User: Fold these one by one.
Assistant:
Number 1:
Amino acid sequence: MEHATGFVLPNSGHNRDAEASKMGMWLFLFTELLLFGGLFLVYMVYRMLNPEAFLLSSFELNITLGTINTVVLLVSSMTIAMSITAIMRGDSKKSVLLLYLTLAASVIFMIIKFFEWSAKINYGYFPGMEVYQNLPDGESLFFFLYFFMTGLHALHVIIGAVLIAVVIYRTQKGLVTAQKYTLTENAGLYWHLVDLIWIFLFPLLYLIH
Amino acid sequence: MATAVATDLNFFQVKRGFFSWIFSIDHKRIGLLYMYSLITFFLVGATLGVLMRLELLNPGKDFLEAQTYNQVFTLHGVIMIFLFIIPSIPAVFGNFFLPIMIGTDDVAFPRLNLLSWWLYIIGALMALSTLVFGDGPADTGWTFYAPYSVNTSTNVTISVLAAFVLGFSSILTGLNFIVTIHRLRTPGMTFMKMPLFAWSLYATSWIQLLATPIIGITLMMIVAERVFGVGLFDPSIGGDPILYQHLFWIYSHPAVYIMALPAFGIISELLPTFSQRTIFGYSAIAFSSLAIAFIGYFVWGHHMFTSGMSGPARIIFSILTFLVAIPTAIKVFNWVATLYKGSINVQPPLLYALAFIFQFSVGGLTGVVLGALAADIHLHDTYFVVGHFHYVMFGGAGFAFFGALHYWIPKIWGRMYNIRVANIAFSILFVGFNVLYFPMLVVGLMGMPRRYYDYLPEFHLPNMISTYGSWILAVGLLLMLGNLIVGVRKGKKVGRNPWNGITLEWQTPSPPPLQNFDKMPELPKGGPYDFKQE
């Protein structure tokens, strides 16, 4: 910012600073990791206290759908990384195309999640439903944690998808360019986090036997 | 933003009107927004505190029902902790002075900064809304211990959600400060040439960032348990209440350093200025902040010595707790050494700093007593804990806040309050504070439990003295605030540097212009506290 007396402060909070934005995003990701970290801790404690109930309940989950979703997220992480490379090279069309692919992946993930959840809810495993209330303590904890953790993760998928939609819009408007692509990078960082958390959730909930 | 603003206007004059404040992204205005809201909530909390003391004037019921008393002490705790002392110094003085002290014109993310104030206000309104509907404010104590908190019919859900929103606000402030300190220091100001206030904010911000999410998710689990009847923390349906205590204190112990570290930073600014001497042991003070932030993560178990933990775990937590005393003592010794052979200028801010050192030492040493396993078994949940906590938080962080008010108000408004009245108000506050809280330590040692509206007749005398102290303290508070308000409105105008300070904020006009500086700030050659060159 220029001052009336004709000097300019070397650093201003109103300057565009790509490094600062990225640093802010990384710090925010730390808080996200700790948010889920608290849940992982709770999961670990209750798994240790109720090993058999957790094992039995985990058989109710659909490993095939879980695996497909894992692949979908991994691929989407790749497409968004490629989209960043594309915009760095100035190819905004390819960048937008790859962002659309990522967006499509997030929609596929949510659709599969929807079918998984509806199946469980049809059985009455959702907290508060009659079947749930009559489950043994350990199993009801497992299903609560299942819904809570995947639900919180799904919320992050939705936020990530909205963010990606914003990036698409701004790239098409020409506001994201080869000189100014921090927004794409930050969306990418966020999306990798969404992916990474799923990589932990999937084995914890579905695979451990 | 390239348009130049006339520099003869200060940041108050650039724009006017209510909306130019509540939607301002200027860090100075946001700092003041926080100041007004914080002091308002502080007065509400203090009133609740005086009410509690009044109930405790005599044994037996005086005028509050047992249930009302439970709600009053919970609301007092929630307001004082989440609405006042956690945001206090960083949100008010950090926002206002951090960018000026490091020679820039704003924080790294000005709009995020405004968002954090809005979240604070939303959280505050949620917390206060519990007063008006349903069964009234939560009656669980500010710790929301399960399983009671998942069973009581009072408005725990809203209180807990309010704490969640306030936590978000706190995270955003911390994130903003870390990036600001990394990216916006003026050239030549290395980390080791930053004012110590900036160092303490840096350490605080990391705690805010890395501890707050844990309480966020824990509080969400309390809400889930209340809404869906899940057995997370209620043992009757398979939960583990001790797990809640662990999760709660994993955040809430580091949180006491969120409250204390910025106060240390204030004291490290006040002492060099009012002894006109460079700070003793700059790097020791700077790094001890980081050490406290780090060790503070690993001591949460000392809140749970009587809750049921294995012997070795308790011993380890006890040893780690003692370790925190080391970096804290390093600071105290360095502060005292700074005064040695200084040219001491006794002004109100220095008085608050000296009171801080005394009261914080009492608080710190009683903390060591509580950290000792054997002593804690006796003292747990007695008034000794209440006394200790208020010595640390009010006698420490609160007095540092008042000291900072007296130090920087001439800079913020360009006017000086009445020094004589300020000194008198300080004396009343100091006496009132110690008369109020010292008897609590005594009565705690005698075995009076906390959180009851009633007590045995043998505790009558100390409780009476303590209640008298609360009246003295209230008078001191009102006199201090009244004097400051009159000073801000009608005080004598002061120039750039009434205290002869040499950190960067004293180089700019009072009040500062919108862009903080009217000429290029010049760094003192020998670091931020090199008074010799003057």
Note: The beta strands of chain B are 415-416, 492-493.
Number 2:
Amino acid sequence: MTDRLRQALAEVSAAANAFSEQATDYEALLQAITDSCARALDASCSVGLYSDDNSTITPVAVTAVRPTMEGALEGMLRHPRRYEQTLVGQLAPETGNLFVPEIALSDLRDRLTPEAYNALGHFGVRGFISVTMRVRGEPIGVLTVIQHDTARPPLDDLDREIATHLANLAGFAIANARLFRRMQEEAAGRMSAEQVAERTRASEQRAIQANAFIDAVLENIPAMVFVKDADRLQFVRFNRAGEQLLGIPRGELIGKSDFDFFPKDEAEFFVAKDRETLRNQTMVDIPEEPIQTANGTRWLHTRKVPILDEQGESRYLLGISHDITERKRDMAALERARDAAETASGELESFSYSVAHDLRAPLRAIDGFSQALLDELGSELGEVGRGYARRVRSSAQRMATLIDDLLKLSRVTRSPLASQRVDLGELFRTTVAALQRDEPDRRVEIATSGDLVTHGDPRLLAIMFDNLVGNAWKFTSRRPIAHIALRAEANEGEQVFSISDDGVGFDMKYVQKLFGVFNRLHADSDFPGTGVGLATVQRVVARHGGRAWAHGEVDRGATFSFTLGDTRKA
Amino acid sequence: MTDRVILLVEDNRDDEELTLRALAKSKITNPVVVVRDGVEALDWMFRRGAHATRPDHQIPQVVLLDLKLPKVDGLEVLRELRANDATKLTPVVILTSSVEEQDLIRGYGLGANSYIRKPVDFTQFVEAVRQLGLYWLVLNQPIPG
């Protein structure tokens, strides 16, 4: 064996050692490959690796034996080049292996790109070897040896052998290093023990924060909130509202049971409800329960909820109690008030009945016997006496009208509201028609406009229209041709109705008095009336949740407007 | 012979007098029997008690019934009249001051034939009596028998 061969074997075996030492450090391994190659062959070496789809080759490590070459090779590092642009891709694309011991540059001119040709000339490249590194037949990269030193003998077959051996060794070393790197990356995906510990600490921290959050929420809920453990029904949690309600500090409550605080029968009731909740695993609602506290008996509305563990077993009992003592007291007061109101209403009803029946009877006698007087003794009374008798009659009749109007007013207040769809335009025309029948000689023109369909109690609205339209009719009696109009307008989503006339009107100075009972703006001799009509209108409108108002001008007519609220749901 | 009698059930003497005047003014000449409370009204109708011996040729042509009566009220009288075969078809006109809807509804519900509110104005009252007299005593064909 020649010295040169012996030395070559030694270099290859040293390279194998170097590769295995760097088996776990991918970058260091790549550098070790070009370093070993340069030392073994006394030439510059580079390693280029294929991309995943084999379309490009990227130089990943270089070792230059002469400084002149170093910059050029390192400048190529990490710049991917297409396979067909590499020397081996241009000169031996099929085998991927290239051995050019001595370049005759002029021979290569036609086979290389101008850049490659110029580069070879510029750096004084004399010869090179390219060997494709393969793992199980698949190319993974190219080891290139470049000889540009005139002092060194030209590359020969032994150099090519050595380069081929190194490429084989390097290929396996790279494959192994890649495998190792992938395993490391996979392992990194899983958690290290330290990471697990760190995460546990973080989640404990979060749990503490969440607990503090829940505590803060529970503390500030204005209802008593408590938690009991499912086995012994002892308190494990209590909020501030609970402390205040019972008048017992939390410290004395935790770890205790109902029997420590409440009378035996009460505690038994609570515990029975607790057990029911935990056994059925459903919420139990206790609308009313008394509880003895440091502040006396309170009434609670309590909901009890089972809290289950992951196995579906009841672990805790959550209780939420509202103090309804005040509400209960208010309800009782309300009920008493309602009873009183009903009694009063009943009394009013019988009063109304008496008024209707009992007050009218004497009036009938006054009127009837005045007429009897006129019939039987009229001639003896003389003109003055007959006049007095007639005035007695008319007063009695006026009082009867007054009583009737008051009864209607009280009926408007008492009768329940039966709301339905009502066409006010139709009601308007019906009301006018009735008035026209009584006074066929009057000339009154009517007009309507807008959407007159609404919701309300037809009977009450009829009473209201009798009054409003009746007024308009009455106060236009001096017009040869009177005008009465019903209008509907939408104002801020509300229907506003108005009935206007061109009658005698009124002075706005007295507008406040209009809707009061018995308040009149006109002498009875001018326009007869009882002063109850507009009060009745006001009641009807109020019953519907609406408003009524008026506008007038002396001798220029009056307008009465009203809304009916939203009675569709009533 | 039979008397086509009007039975007036009225506790108020003034109203009684006025009703009689109104009937007279309306030229209604049928005999009028006046009873002053609900018990008496039923006694007369069923010929019992104080009226057990009343002549049976007096056939009530129409009953003018006030509602607010001592002892037994008008609606109760009406109920008993309608419950009895002998009187269930007798015309009954409720003649009252009340216009309470409940009274109207109950009155018609119990089988009243008319419901007339006594007006305060005597002129109107005479007119109302005239019309009811014309209808029940002249135009209406009584049940045979």
Note: The two ends of chain A are 118 Å apart (CA to CA).
